Amino acid sequence: MIPAENANTLSQWFYTNAPAAWISALVAVLTCVILLLSRKKPQRLVIQENRNVSLIRTWPSLREKMKITFNDSLIEALSFINIEVFNKGSEVITNATFNIIFPEGCKVLETSVVADELNVQHALENNKVTITLPYINPVREHQHRVRLLILTDGTTDPIKVTGSGSGWSLLHQPLPTNKSLKLRLKITMAIVSLFLPLSYYYLKFIEKNYGISETEISIRALLASLPILLILIVFGLWLSKYFNRQMRGRSLTGQLRNQ
């Protein structure tokens, strides 16, 4: 229940220009969000690296004493790479062929595909894998993803992706480097360090100029807190994008190991 004092303040506030200004700003923001989400996106086939892991990690002195073979052939540096392929656009992409190319000296040993009964063609040639998709639906509407596991012998970094077709292009998303991860951590810490004191001073400013206390429960208090809520939502989406990618990479590894 809203106290009588707050109710009187609220009724007076509704007779000012503030409600119209806040509501107009809210409608403008929602309109921009709807337009951005509903706009037609270019046909973009995304090749996203999720994991790149060495299967032979041990002490150098012990590694020299080990011999590992694959199909009776001696190998030196066994690794697997998890890759997701999805259509970021708004329409179906058909007959898409692209190449995943590893550095010279790296040999592709095996490729496995998880594609929900989609007849994906793949061919191996030394340090290159060629993938052909008969079609792939937009990921936003259909959650359609093709998952790849590539087993290699040799250095896998950097990975190069090539290919294009009529009306579509490729977008390669490599794994973040240690430098980019450190930068992300610094940005996160900076945002948190700035957000807390700025939120405090913003609430004090609202209370001093508009009489909206931190404990008030009303429509105008909700509208006044929208900037803080929007910042929290954007920050949460920014973090969840990174963690979702990490979780998909681990989930993909589990699916392929169970095959």
Task: Describe the model.
With 259 residues, this protein is α+β, with helices and mostly antiparallel strands. The protein folds into two domains: 44-175, Immunoglobulin-like (Sandwich), CATH 2.60.40; 176-259. 42% of the residues lie in helices and 29% in strands. It has seven helices and eleven strands. The protein has helices spanning 4-13, 18-38, 60-63, 139-142, 178-210, 219-224, 226-257, and strands at 44-54, 68-70, 73-75, 78-87, 93-101, 107-114, 121-125, 128-136, 145-153, 160-162, 169-173. The strands form three sheets. The chain has a five-stranded mixed β-sheet with strand order 6-9-4-1-11, covered by helices on one side. A hairpin with a 2-residue loop joins strand 2 (68-70) and strand 3. The longest helix has 33 residues, at 178-210.
Please state how the strands of the largest beta sheet are arranged side by side. Answer: 6-9-4-1-11
| Computed CA radius of gyration, to the nearest angstrom | 26 Å
The CATH architecture assignment of the largest domain turns out to be Sandwich
Structure classification = alpha+beta
CATH class of the largest domain: Mainly Beta
- CATH fold description of the largest domain: Immunoglobulin-like
**End-to-end CA span:** 58 Å
- The H-and-E topology, N to C, reads as HHEHEEEEEEEHEEEHHH
Helix content: 40-55%
User: What gross morphology would you assign?
Assistant: elongated
* DSSP strand count: 11
On the 0 to 100 scale, the average pLDDT is 78
Proportion of residues in β-strands: 25-35%
Oligomer: single chain
Largest sheet: 5 strands, mixed
Helix tally equals 7
